[in-house]
Write the structure tokens for this entry.
Amino acid sequence: MANVRLERITRKFNNATAIENITFEVPDGQFWVLVGPSGCGKSTILRTIAGLETATSGNLYIGNQLVNAIPPRQRDVAMVFQNYALYPHMTVAENLAFGLRMRNVDSTKIQERVETVARSLNIDHLLTRKPKQLSGGQQQRVALGRAIAREPKAFLLDEPLSNLDAQLRDDTRAELKQLHQRLGITTIYVTHDQVEAMTLADQIVVLNQGRIQQIGDPQSIYAQPANRMVATFLGSPPMNILKVIYTGGIFQVGNQSFPSFFAVQEKLQLIEGQGFDLGIRPEHIQVFPQQITSNGQEGTPHLVAEVNVVEPLGRETLIRAALPDSDILLNIQAPADWRGYPGDRISLQLDFNQLFVFDPTTGDTLYPLK
């Protein structure tokens, strides 16, 4: 096992830059997840670590060894691909043993290691079968087992669960986490699935357009996103973004308004007419029937919205609503017993302690700051 360190890694394809100035270090034995939207560069980083791509510039270390010029098979890392890449003409046992045979390991030791790995993954009863006789989950375990049997310095996993159905993905994700806890092998895992990232990672690297946006443990990134992209990418349903204008001590949202809160005024020294992107997660919005004050106006600080879609999910109800006379759509998590229908008018109470303020131009988080 070993740490993996990237120093200012850039990879260009002709005139296109896939990843730029990527720098981070995965300590020995930790599980790091690279996450981001499609095309953000996460698989390119993984393939560069494996040696399947050559960095245009920068240095890559596995352990204390600079591996820029070392071919893939000599880097002592094991990669598990999205499509498993099992040999169809080989049995499970032969697939598990393949990497060891390529390294001329003693046949007795190969058999011992294959049996040990098969037992640990609960596939020891499948050793004589071929891949076409296995389910997707079983094939995924065999692919993992082939990597484990090599006892590499690091695991590289490129969206290994994406081909599984929902229930099997959940089960296999839990098994994968238990396996890492037991083996303690340095692991770098690529996914676009934020649930996998949040549940598996010791540390998450959030990427967008080939650049690192933020590195941190899952809870810290969720609670303290560095920018609007991170804030909206992590979280399901995603964070709501309201385009607001500060005017006369209030935030104007479309043709509605609510009081600005003191902490933001104090921190940002607001200027009349200044625009912001205000972020709030669906779980931090309370829903009420539309409330009307004695003068016929909606009670502050509620916003009024019109229900578009109601999605009962058992433990909660997801509401998709629109602010009237605007193009602002909101995701709201309501209690499971909430009852409403498309077309209903509802009032929304924002939890001021859970609001985020982002620069509308750069997307950087302005409030709260770490």
About this structure: Residues 292-301 have pLDDT under 50 and may be disordered. The CA atoms of residues 70 and 177 lie 30 Å apart. DSSP finds nine helices and 21 strands in the chain.
